[in-house]
Design goal:
Blueprint (H helix, E strand, L loop, with lengths): L8 E4 L5 H12 L5 H6 L10 E4 L5 E14 L2 E13 L8 H15 L4 E4 L13 E2 L2 E8 L14 E6 L2 H15 L31 E6 L5 E9 L3 E2 L2 E2 L1 E10 L2 H11 L5 E5 L8 H5 L7 E6 L2 E4 L2 H6 L8 E7 L9 E9 L5 E7 L6 E4 H7 L6 H6 L3 E3 L4 H9 L12
Parallel strand pairs: 4-5, 13-14, 17-20
Antiparallel strand pairs: 1-2, 2-3, 3-4, 5-16, 6-16, 7-14, 7-15, 8-9, 9-10, 10-13, 11-12, 17-18, 18-19, 20-21
Length: 420
């Protein structure tokens, strides 16, 4: 671990020091939360998981926190430390504070029995050196108004309502649809710690647009099947109204609900273009568009994963094919992981997947892999075969990369639908 500068120390941050914690965050990320915004947006920090580096004069120099998540992984779930609120004062950078905080985070997460950590990277160049791998992508699209969708049976029975967001009335609805829509998708973390923030709408966040609206799709029994939160902004040009529609989140439980939801969103009066929020790269909408070339897509890195306890993490997920492989794992931060591990799958389950046991091994390695690449492949959205082709995984036994790539792969693209 990189030692802290003389007189600096790692401290727990109690709720009574929230203002000091927030001051560091605002200096690090160059923003100001007005009193009005703070009154509307609740603090969701878990104070027993919130830490800082304190200067000799008692001022907080750098901060971080984490959430206690249950991370969906291929065929299962594992405890996960969701790293968040990481920041250092600009005048305290390049002093080893981040390295020290990450070491503290790893130690505390392992002490709580969390074999995996995950985060969203504000700057993607930072976290690879700490062993986090980019484990998923999301796609965001701009779609012209009136874009046609292919027909889907069952849409005729679905109805749509359009309202202004009301947190008291809509939070439970949004949470329920979000949970059902993401069932079985790796990375789809539920908002157990952030439910009240989901529908936040302080005026400072609107950029001159309307208050946050919500579209809800229901079936004949009144059961919600999809929702979208959005804003429109008044824009007039010589041809007439050119309102943009910005979707914060659009979630549906099935194809029919997806079709009904987006048919409505793509036909709002006065609008010109619809810009989506984060979507899985295999979202049903992308297959339903009649003219995919009319869409302007943008691919983004999504959730990053760090295996803190390699054998526990690898044994905690399911596999798509049988596998017997020895992995020579490199881990510069956590020496307990840095050795050869044999991963052997068991009998085929009724759902066609395989569990695995992971044990230390003295046998010759089939693959040499850094913990960063294991994290990238962990949710099934990155190919170990492709990583080997890129020179990031070294194959010692011919065919081992292809076999491991097939077993680690998963038929549903991983994604986390919200930034924690």
């Amino acid at each position: 671990m990189t030692p802290l500068p003389a007189g600096y120390r790692t401290v727990a941050v109690p709720a009574e020091r929230e203002d000091e914690f927030r001051d560091v965050d605002q200096l690090a990320f160059a923003f100001e939360a007005t009193p009005e915004t703070r009154a509307i947006v609740p603090t969701t920090l878990e104070w027993d998981r919130t830490m800082a580096v304190e200067r000799p004069d008692g001022v907080l120099a750098a901060v971080h926190s984490s959430y206690a998540f249950t991370l969906p992984v291929p065929g299962a779930t594992v405890p996960c430390a969701g790293l968040t609120w990481v920041g250092a004062r600009p005048d305290e950078r390049r002093r080893g504070l981040l390295t020290s905080m990450i070491a503290t985070h790893f130690e505390r997460a392992l002490g709580r029995g969390e074999p995996v950590s995950a985060l969203f990277a504000a700057e993607p160049a930072i976290y690879g050196r700490f062993g986090y791998g980019s484990a998923a992508d999301d796609v965001r699209v701009k779609i012209p108004r009136g874009a046609a969708l292919r027909d889907v049976p069952g849409t005729e029975e679905l109805t749509v309502t359009f309202e202004t967001v009301d947190r008291e009335r809509h939070t439970d609805l949004v949470q329920d649809v979000h949970r059902r829509a993401g069932a079985g998708r790796p990375g789809w973390v539920l908002r157990t710690t952030d439910a009240l923030r989901t529908l936040n709408d302080p005026p400072a966040w609107r950029d001159g647009a309307e208050p946050l609206r919500i579209v809800v799709v229901r079936d004949a029994t009144g059961d919600p099947r999809a929702y979208a939160t959005l804003r429109r902004k008044e824009v007039w040009a010589e041809p007439g109204p050119r309102y943009p529609v910005k979707i914060r989140e659009a979630v549906a439980v099935d194809a029919a609900a997806t079709h009904r939801l987006w048919s409505f969103l793509l036909d709002l009066d006065l609008t010109h273009e619809v810009e989506s929020g984060m979507m899985p790269v295999d979202d049903a909408l992308l297959h339903l568009l009649v003219d995919a070339r009319a869409v302007v897509p943008r691919l983004n890195d999504n959730i990053w994963v760090r295996l803190l306890d390699v054998p526990a993490a690898l044994a905690g997920r399911r596999y798509s094919a049988p596998l017997d492989v020895v992995l020579d794992v490199a881990d510069a931060r956590l020496p307990a992981n840095a050795r050869a591990w044999r991963l052997v799958t068991g009998e085929r389950a009724d759902d066609g997947t395989y569990d695995a046991r992971v044990e230390p091994s003295d046998a010759a390695a089939d693959l040499a892999v850094d913990v960063r690449e294991l994290g990238a492949a962990y949710l099934g959205g990155r190919s170990l075969t492709a990583l080997a082709a890129a020179g990031l995984v070294v194959e010692h036994r011919p065919g081992a990369a292809q076999a491991a790539g097939g077993a680690f792969a998963w038929p549903v693209a991983p994604v986390c639908s919200w930034v924690f």
